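Before relying on records like the one below, remember that each one covers exactly one chain. Contacts with other chains, cofactors or solvent are not represented anywhere in the record.
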Amino acid sequence: MSVTVDHEKMDVQSLGIQTVGQVIKELQKSKRLVVRLVIDGEAPDLRRMAEIAAMPLTGHTIFVETVDPLEASLEVLINAYTELNRADEFKAEASDLLRRNKWADAMEKLRQCLALWQGAQRAIVTVGRLFQIDVEQMLVASRPLRILSEDFARQLNSLQTAIQSADLVGVSDVLVYETAHTGDTWRAAIEALRAVINPPRAVQSAV
């Protein structure tokens, strides 16, 4: 029986730990987020997590890799924020291609733009769940994120309708007018969530 966490042996006997699930719970007490689990040299199927958690440690070699939840979440949000800049570029390129009647090329740029916008939305939801934050009620530019998410859904529906109709002018109008501030909205949402999970510390006076 051997349990290694981030390249250090875990003294499971003194802790009274007997199962894989108890190992994970002990790490959660230390505010560590498990990002990789290897049992006897193989990564288990995490869809069978209940079965894996009940597995006794005896006779097995366990390796666990963890990260600090705050650090990992901030990295996810920073990456999503950076990708929104690329989304702006793809959007501008799609609009330009539409003006030049290059439908196929424009659709590819638009697909990439939408993927990055949706990626930012997923990053916000994922981090919110990790910290048990109701992101839908989080205020962004004085409006609940729920309202902004609904606006985003309508934008996607408008784009889908125009694309399905091969309406070049319609797609262009949605990009220019309806999604004019979409990138800025998701950037503001990311900043708002960052402030919640990692609020700036008050600077104490030296006096």
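The beta strands are 2-5, 8-9, 33-39, 61-67, 139-140, 143-144.
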